[in-house]
Automatic annotation (TrEMBL):
This is Oxidoreductase. SUPFAM superfamilies: NAD(P)-binding Rossmann-fold domains. Keywords: Oxidoreductase. One of its GO terms (molecular function) is oxidoreductase activity. Residues 40-74 form the Pyrroline-5-carboxylate reductase catalytic N-terminal domain. InterPro entries: NAD(P)-bd_dom_sf, P5C_Rdtase_cat_N, STEAP_metalloreductase.
């Protein structure tokens, strides 16, 4: 059992937290004004991209050695036509620079809250969570913590893959926003 702290009490935070709880883990949710004394073994940043820097700066000491999952997609919401990070980087890679002593993992950003709740993409396919990190043990710890959740967990490679995951997450969001797919749809991997 892991102790999981989730920054964010919105739809994504609750959906992710529910899956960790299904795996038998203890889950704590934090809102914007909460100031925790301690953080869990796994910390999920279920917040907008713009909040990452502030959280990293406030909690840099408390996040040393922790597994930190970045679920953000750094979308330019003014144009809804691009990402706001440099083309050779990602939000997760930026976070890794801010938190050099944490184990940064990109995950859940290619999922919609509804698919994390139903455990299905569309009517039939199991929801797949893609994890990218330079720390293989962090990805394995997350997979073990989610083992009772009925989600498919796939190792998507190194943290460099966060760039592609963020592009995929953004692409999926644009499809749903333009009603080409539903918010219950998305991508799933078949083996």
């Amino acid at each position: 059992m892991a102790e999981v702290t989730i920054f964010g009490k919105g739809n994504m935070g609750k959906a992710i937290g529910g899956n960790f709880a299904d795996g038998g883990n203890a889950v704590t949710y934090l809102g914007h004004s909460d100031r925790p004394e301690t953080l869990g073994d796994i910390v999920v940043l279920a917040v907008p991209y713009a909040a990452l820097k502030d959280i990293a700066e406030k909690y840099v000491a408390q996040l040393v050695g922790k597994i930190v999952i970045d679920i953000t997609n750094p979308v330019n919401f003014d144009t809804f036509d691009s990402l706001t990070v440099p083309t050779d980087s990602s939000a997760a890679q930026e976070l890794a620079q801010l938190l050099p002593d944490a184990k940064i993992v990109k995950g859940f950003n290619t999922n919609f809250a509804s698919t994390l709740l139903s455990k299905k993409v569309g009517d039939a396919q199991t929801t797949t969570v893609l994890l990218a990190s330079d720390d293989d043990s962090a990805k394995e710890t997350i997979a073990q913590a989610l083992s009772g959740s009925n989600l498919a967990i796939v190792d998507a490679g190194s943290l460099k893959r966060a760039k592609e995951l963020e592009e995929l997450g953004f692409f999926q969001m644009t499809l749903a926003a333009s009603e080409k797919i539903s918010w219950n749809g998305g991508f799933s991997l078949l083996k």
